[in-house]
């Protein structure tokens, strides 16, 4: 059975596009049923509209009441029979009701070696600026399940890269993003083939 995938994105959407390409190439046993975004003008939404992917905008303008907004996520996701939620540059906190209802079915990608440079305040270029400022010799990518606290859920996969002497935050961010595109599709492929299990917060990827 194909897994129904919902993407959550707020920005350029390069990870979203990459996953779609991987699906279109037949690498992943899934289909993107929905994009949820808080930002109607972002690259991810423009891309979804161009490729006729269903798009739902959920933000404070449309839903003044928090409870109504949190319920809307669930209503929409359930209506598409969502099996997997992929956060791909989503800038809003995931409501607790979703974290509970979709336990171990929400995955995030983060451009650092968590727990380093994770949590509130560490996003976008700020992460790479801090890595360089602190003279780190390595950085990388973490893909993890989403729990109540930012960037703290069980780690599914990490990839390291060396920080080069001539890296700027901008160059580093591009190099890390290239790795993101490689590893996110591997994790999604494994999940959609039922190869990922979680036991007492430890993730096992079965061969
Ligand atoms: C990526 O660096 C991802 O790790 C982080 O947000 C960024 C999104 O980039 N969570 P894009 O919109 O997928 O290009």
Distinctive features:
207 residues; alpha/beta; seven-stranded mixed beta sheet; two-stranded antiparallel sheet; 6 helices; 35% helix; 24% strand; binds 5-O-phosphono-beta-D-ribofuranosylamine
Describe the structure.
The radius of gyration is 17 Å and the shape is globular. The strands form two sheets. Strands 3-2-1-4-5-6-7 form a seven-stranded mixed beta sheet, sandwiched between helices. Strands 8-9 form a two-stranded antiparallel ribbon. The model has no long low-confidence stretch (mean pLDDT 97). It has six helices and nine strands, in the order βαβαβαβαβαββαββ. Helix 2 (43-50) links the parallel strand 2 and strand 3 (55-57). Helix 1 (14-24) runs parallel beside helix 6 (169-192) and helix 5 crosses helix 6 (169-192). The longest helix is centred in the C-terminal third of the chain and has 24 residues, at 169-192. The protein has helices at 14-24, 43-50, 66-79, 96-101, 125-133, 169-192, and strands at residues 3-8, 30-37, 55-57, 84-87, 106-110, 138-145, 155-162, 196-199, 202-205. By secondary structure, it is α/β, with parallel strands linked by helices. The site of 5-O-phosphono-beta-D-ribofuranosylamine (GRF) has 13 residues, from helix 1, strand 5 and helix 6.
């Amino acid at each position: 059975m194909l897994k129904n995938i919902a993407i959550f994105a707020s920005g350029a959407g390069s990870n979203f596009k990459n996953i779609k390409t991987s699906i279109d190439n037949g690498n992943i046993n899934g289909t993107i049923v929905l994009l949820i975004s808080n930002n109607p003008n972002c690259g991810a939404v423009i891309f979804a509209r161009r490729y006729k992917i269903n798009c739902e905008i959920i933000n404070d303008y449309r839903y003044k009441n928090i409870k109504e907004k949190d319920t809307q996520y669930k209503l929409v996701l359930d209506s598409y029979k969502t099996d997997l939620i992929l956060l791909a540059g989503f800038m809003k906190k995931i409501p607790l009701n979703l974290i509970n209802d979709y336990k171990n079915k929400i995955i995030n990608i983060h451009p650092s070696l968590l727990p380093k440079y994770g949590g509130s305040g560490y996003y976008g270029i700020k992460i790479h600026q801090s890595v360089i400022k602190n003279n780190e010799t390595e950085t990388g990518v973490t893909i993890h399940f989403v729990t109540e606290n930012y960037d703290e859920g069980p780690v599914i996969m990490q990839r390291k890269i060396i920080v080069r002497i001539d890296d700027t935050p901008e160059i580093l961010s591009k190099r890390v993003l290239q790795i993101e595109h490689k590893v996110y599709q591997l994790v999604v492929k494994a999940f959609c083939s039922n190869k990922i299990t979680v036991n007492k917060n430890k993730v096992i990827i079965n061969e």
